[in-house]
Amino acid sequence: MDKLKVIDLFCGAGGFSEGFRQAGFEVTHAVDNWNFALAAHKANQPEAEVVKADLEKEFLTEEEIAARFPKPDVIIGGPPCTEFSGSKRGGSGDVAKGMKLVLAFFRFVHTLKPRWWVMENVPRLLQTLPDHVKLKEMGVPEEGRFEIPRREVFNSADFGAPQKRLRLLSGRYPSPVQTHSDAPTLTLDNVLYQPWVPMRKVVDAFPNPIGRVPKGKVVEDPNYPEITLKAEELEDHFLKPEEALMSEEEAARNKRQKVAHAYYGKMNFPDVLDRPARTVMATQFNASRETMVIATKYKGETRFRKPTVRECASFQTYPITYRFPGQTLATKYRLVGNSVPVFLSRAIAKAILAEAGEDLRKTPLAEIPAPRVSA
Ligand SMILES: C[S@@+](CC[C@H](N)C(=O)[O-])C[C@H]1O[C@@H](n2cnc3c(N)ncnc32)[C@H](O)[C@@H]1O
């Protein structure tokens, strides 16, 4: 069977693509308007053609899209979620601006008619996203409407990621197979869910990030036991003490924000390593209420630090060999924090593959009908 072909819109560093790649798909095109995202995608998944485009201003018509992109089997993508995210000024982002990019994604799906499509966003979008959109709203000058047949929130921890990250997946896709849950559970159809993977699995897998690199020490990937690197080959982890440690004031402020917040509820300070990590944020670099904080020993004292870019990447289930180009730590944290966890993406990809395999026995892929557009 030929590899199923995927186009990734708003590709970022490529977490969504990477899950499909690992499941055996061919990502043919990856589109973004940010050079660092395109560079990261290219560095790690060189088979895909990267396309730099502002999807708010380019590819506004079906003709332009059809002229540039071949018909894929799957379209995936995560339009930026800042406008919908609960963390943005109490949720007061510019929803109309965010919707423009969501509609751009729909325009691609309507034009290229892949059999499957999956759009990732924050759960908050569920409040705004209807189950259909008029074609005219998407810039398609026709009567009729575009259907969004499925909208469901998934937790990446349920698919083996050491991170609790809730994401809304909209589109046309089969159910991914859950493998983990809060506690070991035997389901009615006799499947045993493994317990959620704790944050400790990542933190303990890496050498202490502060100070000297323990040369020659072998680091085993916490998510892919078959991948190992020598400590000196590990990127984006080792820092000078002054870069890694939170100052006393910063730690005290963060603790206050977390434990004494009457309105938003209390959070643990420091984070509890025996639970999956809280959601990795794109703004992880600046200490805020949502920032993860890890307790560490430094010169015999208990101090606090944020997770390194590499630890965040492992919470997102990127392999430890995945590279994040960027001149600043803020850029790297953003690339990582924006991503779809690879394991969640891979679970969806595998479900699609299973469905394709089923159908391919009955119908060759080319004859499978294109998505329905009802009047
Ligand atoms: C949430 S991230 C996507 C992350 C990606 N799905 C992953 O798994 O790594 C959103 C991406 O949309 C890109 N973006 C934002 N506005 C855009 C626009 N107008 N046109 C194209 N890309 C845009 C950002 O640069 C960012 O990389």
Could you characterize what this model shows?
This protein starts with a strand and ends in a 13-residue tail after the last helix. The chain folds into 2 domains: 5-185 and 339-367, Rossmann fold (3-Layer(aba) Sandwich), CATH 3.40.50; 200-336, no CATH class. The longest helix has 21 residues, at 342-362. The model is unreliable at 371-375 (pLDDT under 50). The chain is globular and about 70 Å long. The chain is built from 10 helices and 16 strands. Helix 1 links the parallel strand 1 and strand 2. Helix 1 (15-23) crosses helix 10 (342-362) and helix 3 (62-68) crosses helix 4. 42% of the residues are buried. A 7-stranded mixed sheet has the order 3-2-1-4-5-9-8, with helices on both faces. Strands 10-12-11 form a 3-stranded mixed sheet, with no helix packed on it. It has a two-stranded antiparallel sheet with strand order 6-7. It is α/β, with parallel strands linked by helices. Bound molecules: S-adenosylmethionine (SAM). S-adenosylmethionine is lined by residues 10-16, 32-34, 37, 54-56, 78, 80-81, 101, 338-340.
